[in-house]
Fold this protein.
Amino acid sequence: MRHLINPLDFSLDELHDLLNLADDIAAAPEKYQDVCAHKKLATLFYEPSTRTRLSFEAAMMNLGGSVLGFSSADSSSASKGESVADTIRVVSAYADIAAMRHPREGAPLRASMYSRIPVINAGDGGHEHPTQTLTDLMTIRRRCGKLDGLTIGLCGDLKFGRTVHSLITTMVRYPNTKFVLISPKELRVPDYIYNDVLKPSGCRYVKTTSLEEAMPQLDVLYMTRIQRERFADPNEYRRLKDSYILTPDKMALGKPDLAVLHPLPRVNEITLEVDDDPRAAYFEQAQNGVYVRMALIMTLLGLTEKPLADKPASSRELVEMHCPNPRCITGVEEGVKHLFHRAPDGVLRCIYCEQEA
Ligand code: NCD
């Protein structure tokens, strides 16, 4: 059985089969309306979400399946102290596939270790958000006609923005990708992304604080919200929250075929006037999120023409150590072993949240 926890869980070929299926679904959704008849999706959302949860629910309904679940930790047994390991063992008896969003980094990985049904990471803390990346890829490919050789500007909260981490991890796999990392110094991408993802990939990347300077070279501009809920200090959030605001003036500096993406929700980092610019792709991106999640559900349930092969068990060596990350699942989950593996840069990192030992 396969899960989608990390963006690298799918090979490039598997990813392309999935994107092709999503394009086919977009062209003729009615062809797929009964594919998941009698199947159930559990949405286990311990953290607020509009798009991701509703797009998963819409995706399953479009496939003729049904949906059960909860939309906040307060309305689940987590409020009674139940572990994710126990929750998923129970949910495995109720549903055929589960999508989990959790404020703790590594929670969906933990769940997948105990699950009898495929688990999809729908966002874990400030860590990863692989299904948003599928949405982003589908949108970039449809807008730019390709996924290689693109200059991608990522702007805003690159530290806590999990969609950014998953998108970089995926785009380094395509030849000649160049990244322009636009953020305040305080919100630069985490070290593990530099050391384990960007540097070993050989992709070119530059860091800048200026959106204006970056604009003319970009094929894709990926705007993000400053992630208020992940700041320990509210004053720091207030100081940084208006760091970047995309306006028509700044859009005027961009290429005519630029694609502007945003995972949404937007707060104020893109003004409403930009919505009328044909280069604004973020609402189309949200629509693509339904098609790509339909394709993902079908793929993980083995309902496609070319079913996924099982993955060989990982042979990486694991070491037991304490994880110091206050946002890691190891800090709250009963009975969890704190396990570390040696990352490509030689550093020991927590298998759940990628925090350095
Ligand atoms: C993103 C998320 O939850 O990380 N939203 C989403 O899934 N569409 C981005 C965000 O919340 O800023």
Q: What stands out?
A: The chain is about 30% helix and 15% strand.
